[in-house]
Design goal:
The chain has helices spanning about 20-25, 35, 40-45, 80-90, 110-125, 140-150, 165-170, 175-185, 205-215, 245-255, 275-285; strands spanning about 50-55, 60, 70, 95-100, 130-135, 155, 190-200, 220-225, 260-265. It is of the alpha/beta class. The longest helix is centred in the middle third of the chain and has 14 residues, at about 110-125. The N and C termini lie far apart (about 40 Å). The structure holds iron/sulfur cluster.
Length: about 325
């Protein structure tokens, strides 16, 4: 297992800037996943006056082995959060607003109505901005996903995070087939969909390529691939540092597979430069994505594990 010393290609200067401090001020009291998940890109993104909002509190009800976000008893839902997020997005003058949440298995709808309220508030406060959501799996509740989609996000992101073989260790409580089905279901409504996985968790190349094929079959438009970094010695440890050449290989294979946009690199995260990844393709509302055929979603090509048909989707 590699030690905590980073390979040369992952070394970066530590940044600190007035812009970063200004972003912190403009964010006010709202939570960001940049900070809660100890994202290694925080200085760069805050320095560019961008951030990804974390709603529904900073405490998650699941125990994913890779994630630095706090776990335990979740906070009550803050009814003022939709307006506070919208105001922060406005203060930052964001043209591409990315919103994610902790997983809230304690809430009957998984927080779907709150997501919808935040989308509504942001659209009102920042008209013309692109709204990208990075959602949890809502435990497979189709009604929750419909609630979120009815609010009109421009991009619906849901990360697979890793290959199916590693789910029991890396992402217990989630299901590979269930997550794929969420993406396929969302894509069939015409919304742009996005997903990503982390590399360096012990996956094999063929397993990664199989995930890319599954995502394309689910109609996913945008893909992110990045290097996993352990937030601490108590989290799942890095099994390999993926070289820039290997990222380039995956990017080429993803392009060939037909994704509309691909971001692949050691420091790529699912919300990293999200506006650039979507680009004018998403801003062109005169050219909507054609709805996918309802062909049974992910049934044709079965993932190697987690073959259970989702209970709810
Ligand atoms: S990559 Fe995403 S989570 Fe990380 S700092 Fe940038 S916006 Fe925040």
């Amino acid at each position: 297992m590699p030690g905590r010393r980073l390979p040369d290609w992952m070394r970066r200067p530590i940044e600190s800037s007035a812009a970063l401090r200004r972003t912190r001020e403009l964010l006010g009291s709202v939570h960001t996943v940049c900070r809660e998940a100890r994202c290694p890109n925080l200085a760069e993104c805050y320095g560019r006056h961008t951030a990804t909002f974390l709603i529904l509190g900073p405490v998650c009800t699941r125990s994913c082995a890779f994630c630095a976000v706090g776990k335990g008893r979740p906070h009550p839902v803050d009814p003022e959060e939709p307006d506070n997020v919208a105001l922060a997005a406005s203060r930052l003058a964001l043209s591409h607003v990315v919103i994610t949440s902790v997983t809230r298995d304690d809430l009957p709808d998984g927080g779907a109505a709150h997501f919808a309220a935040v989308v509504g508030a942001v659209k009102k406060e920042c008209p013309g901005s692109v709204v990208e959501l990075l959602v949890p799996d809502f435990q497979g509740q189709a009604a929750a996903l419909e609630t979120v989609l009815a609010a009109g996000p421009d991009i619906l992101n849901h990360n697979l995070e890793t290959v199916p073989r590693l789910y029991p260790v890396v992402r217990p409580g989630a299901g590979y087939a269930r997550s794929l089905e969420l993406l396929a279901r969302a894509g069939r409504t015409g919304v742009r969909t996005k997903s990503g996985i982390m590399l360096g968790l012990g996956e094999e190349r063929e397993e990664v390529l199989a995930v890319l094929a599954d995502l394309r079959q689910a109609g996913v438009d945008f893909l992110t691939l990045g290097q996993y970094l352990a937030p601490s010695e108590f989290h799942y440890q890095v099994r390999a540092y993926v070289t820039p050449q290997e990222f380039e290989f995956y990017r080429n294979r993803a392009d060939q597979a037909g994704f509309t946009g691909v971001a692949a690199g050691p420091y790529v995260r699912s919300s990293y430069r999200a506006g650039e990844l979507a680009g004018p393709k998403i801003l062109d509302r005169n050219n909507p994505k054609p709805p996918l055929q309802d062909d049974g979603g992910t049934e044709e090509r079965k993932p190697p594990e987690d073959r259970t048909v989702p209970e709810h989707f």
